[in-house]
Predict the structure.
Amino acid sequence: MMNSSARRRGPSRLLSCCLLFAFAVRLAAEEVVVDFGDAIIESWVQPVYPEAARKANQEGYVIVEFVVEADGSVTREQVTESSNAVFEPAALAAVRRWHFRPAIKDAKPAASAMQVPVVFNLQQLRQKQVPIMMDAQYQPVPLKFEQARAEQGMDPEYPTELDALRLPGLVRIRFTVEPAGVAQAPQVLFASHPAFVEVALRTLEQMKFVPAHQGSLALSDTMEYPVSFQSFGAKPADVLAANHLTIVGDASDVPLPVMLNQPVYPRDPLLAGTSATVAAEFTVNAEGMVEDIAIADATGSDFEGALRAAIESWVFQRARGDEGKAPVRLKVTHEFAPGFAEARLAVLLQPGGEGIKGPSGLDQKLKPLWRGFPVYPQQLLAEKPAGRAVVEFVIDRDGRARVPRVVETTAPEFGWAALAAITQWVFERPRRGGEPVDVTVRVPVEFQPPRA
């Protein structure tokens, strides 16, 4: 039996409700396809007036929540409010016999949750015949849809690879939260550095979610979630210093690097064991984007092309405050020296070495987890040609894109921009016979001039 306060409230918030449903359509080949819409009642029965209430001249109401299944039948009916418990069995028995045109989601019938006020008044006893349709003001209405949400956040482990660089990080992931509250089919929408991708996905696997629901009905839902990374105690000035960046002249604020991809070590110098140190200056504008790049002591070497392409992809966060911040001039000094992964692959790629096979014979097709977007070269912005580059690279046993080289390109600038983008790509680890392996692949990268 409901408490007395529930009885006094009455169904005022529902009595004014009429049948509401929304749907969207898309036109294709002169067909109208319903993408989504609420359940609509098709047949109903009027509840039997309880004999005890009739004898006592009692009137009342019962608020019933229920689920309309994909076949239009009613299940999981329950009382959420009533004026008198005597009416509850009759209300539930009637609702259980109703039939609906089911809700539509993604152009398919789907279960949905609804509620309805079942009203009992003595006038019903004087009816000569039961109405064919129920009163419009007492039509069932969908329950409010509550989106999926994270039950609690998690602090991801900071990648060891970036300990020395102290970069902040962000990976934004879209995924489906199933009714059981687990994330499925994750898709990386953005990653500020490839080293964050695998850790972010692993963190997502450990998280728990409150599924989307209508009343008691748990539903699948798509959501996006940002996984953030911070190097403990690192301030903007610390991050600049760790990445060999210095401010040229005076600046009112210190820009924080948020996307600082490392320059590509050109393959030919890598295999030849050639190293170099290259310096450049550039400006960070009020929006945190890079412009006016100048290579110090430019000689046109491959190292300079690699450094310029990397800088063009960098993004900084300016301090909060006045939007009219003055640009900040920075200098970077980068030493081209192979890391462990590059050094290992260089041994395999040496003339006479083992070499690295293509993807034939893998346990499954290569699956990209994140593919960074190429940045249109600033040196070509005046003429704005379209361009193309074909790049060969290695997907190593950790799923990272390494040691790329340009096979062909319509302009050198497009080649360097393609290399800078591809080294941000991350794949599921390629395997043969269950063991992680390195794989050589080739891909084309297309460039279109940015719109003014």
